[in-house]
Design goal:
The chain is α/β, with parallel strands linked by helices. The chain has 2 domains: 2-69 and 375-409, Urease, subunit C, domain 1 (Roll), CATH 2.30.40; 71-358, Metal-dependent hydrolases (TIM Barrel, Alpha-Beta Barrel). It has helices spanning 47-53, 92-104, 109-125, 138-148, 169-182, 203-216, 228-238, 242-248, 266-275, 283-288, 296-302, 321-336, 344-358, 391-398, 425-443; strands spanning 8-20, 28-37, 40-46, 54-69, 71-76, 128-133, 151-158, 189-195, 220-224, 256-260, 278-281, 306-308, 375-379, 404-409, 412-416, 419-420. Helix 5 (169-182) packs parallel to helix 6. Bound molecules: zinc ion. Zinc ion (ZN) binds at residues 75, 77, 223, 259, 311. Residues 75, 77, 223, 259, 311 line the site of zinc ion (ZN). GO terms for molecular function: metal ion binding; S-adenosylhomocysteine deaminase activity. This is S-adenosylhomocysteine deaminase. The chain crosses the membrane at residues 394-417.
Length: 445
């Protein structure tokens, strides 16, 4: 009997009313506990048994809460948090050319750092523990994530035409190598090769950059089939739809991450499934920019691994994965004309295990022995979280994100009941105000 054994040591024992594990069997445990040691989950089980089995150095009793894996944001542009609400309600090209790009060309690392830190604070507050980024000056986001204690995959973006950072695509690749080396020993931060899109990076440079991703063994991520308009541009420019441009050159593999995938047809979904490429669904951004509704249930039916992302705060305007969870489920039903499409469980899978696969870190997105202790807790005491027939349903349809009362990455608590442990949110508020004035002054030039 284990009862006769002396209790084992562990760093931390976390106790909660309910635990959504997201393990292979999608086990939900009532009155459970998770033992954490060395940043990893040591064991998970019913509370009485775990209390007998462990003599923890520390205890975190989250009575009245449910514990679940930290959400994984599969697509965002963190420093663009600086542009939240700066230019809303206009078509994509007008938004980019007249508002975003003129300011982006002036961005300083200090301003980017404020945007990235603000983004980290919002991710932590709304229960996200890891994210796949794409932007410029990515070491700024890497350092912000490191300071905040979040996991980040950095994507230094490039085009075939001059960007705010690089005159050519090739000029970016040395930066990618340097970023990769800079974070080689960082347990939280890794990199991805990030061409912007099939209509802004030419096919030869797409292929060259893919070789770099293979060499560094990183994900290769790209905006793809975001809207019918993008398809039309590719067809006019190259005589091919965006996915075919990649497929022809063998760029669809398990390291390929396709952001959006709104305008993928049945033939293309079959190709994505066959090649093992991943898709990240961004339902709120797709709505705000009027891009369309991605056929995600068809992708899941075909066996495609799908993650979930918010996209940047300039086109969402939140980095709150809980909002994208409910939109993904609701829009999916409308898109497929079927109330049974995009179930709560399938959508939660996307925001946890699916996005984790997109980050190239399949150990994330679940609470399971031997896996990283990246967990969040939701306070169940609010009226919108009662009654509790099904906790996965509560997480997807009822939670707003503001129920998050604890966020933990690798066993370290980043946020607990209103207290940010790694970010000075008060001084960040003052910096954000200063940054917003700077953005307005640059836009007026
Ligand atoms: Zn994007």
């Amino acid at each position: 009997m284990t009862n006769s054994l002396p209790p084992s040591p562990c760093d931390l024992l976390v106790l909660a009313d309910v635990i959504i594990t997201q393990d292979d069997a999608r086990t939900v445990i009532s009155n459970g506990a998770v033992a954490v040691t060395g940043g990893l989950v040591d064991r998970i089980g019913p509370r009485p048994e775990m209390e007998r089995a462990y003599a923890p150095a520390d205890r975190l009793d989250l009575g009245g809460c449910m514990l679940m894996p930290g959400l994984v944001n599969g697509h965002t542009h963190l420093p663009m948090t600086l542009f939240r609400g700066f230019a809303d309600d206009m078509p994509l090209m007008e938004w980019l050319e007249e508002h975003i790009w003129p300011v982006e060309f002036q961005l300083t690392e200090e301003m980017l750092g404020i945007g990235a830190a603000l983004g980290c604070a919002e991710l932590i507050r709304t229960g996200c523990t890891a994210f796949l980024n794409g932007y410029f000056h990515e070491q700024v986001t890497g350092d912000a994530a490191s300071t905040a204690g979040l996991r980040a995959v950095l994507g230094e973006g490039f085009f075939s035409f001059p960007s705010p950072m690089f005159p050519t695509a090739q000029a970016c690749w040395q930066t990618i190598r340097e970023l990769h080396a800079r974070y080689a020993d960082n347990p939280l931060v890794t990199t991805a090769v990030t061409p912007h899109a099939a209509f802004t990076v030419n096919p030869e440079e797409l292929a060259e950059s893919f070789e770099l991703a293979c060499e560094l063994d990183t994900p290769w991520q790209i905006h793809l089939a975001e809207s019918p308009a993008e398809t039309a541009v590719c067809v006019e420019k190259y005589g091919r739809r965006p996915l075919d441009i990649l497929h022809e050159r063998g760029l669809l593999t398990r390291r390929t991450v396709l952001h959006h995938g709104v305008d993928l047809d049945a033939r293309e979904i079959a190709i994505v499934a066959r090649t093992g490429a991943r898709v990240v669904h961004n339902p709120v951004s797709n709505l705000k920019l009027c891009s369309g509704i991605a056929p995600v249930q068809a992708m899941l039916d075909a066996g495609v691994t799908v993650g979930l992302g918010t996209d940047g705060a300039a086109s969402n305007n939140q980095l709150n994965m809980f909002r994208d969870l409910s939109y993904a489920a609701l829009l999916g039903k409308l898109r497929h004309g079927n109330a049974a499409a995009m179930s709560a469980q399938s959508v939660l899978d996307m925001a946890t295990r699916g996005s984790a696969a997109c980050l190239g870190q399949p150990g994330l997105g679940r609470i399971e022995a031997g896996h990283p202790a990246d967990m969040i807790a939701l306070d169940l005491s609010g009226p919108n979280m009662q009654p509790a027939y099904n906790h996965v349903s509560l997480a997807v349809y009822s939670a707003t994100g503001m129920e998050v009362c604890m966020t933990m990455v690798a066993g370290t608590i980043l946020y607990l009941f209103g207290d940010f442990r790694t970010i000075d949110v008060k001084s960040l508020q003052a910096k954000a105000l200063r940054a917003s004035r700077w953005v307005v002054s640059q836009a007026g030039k």
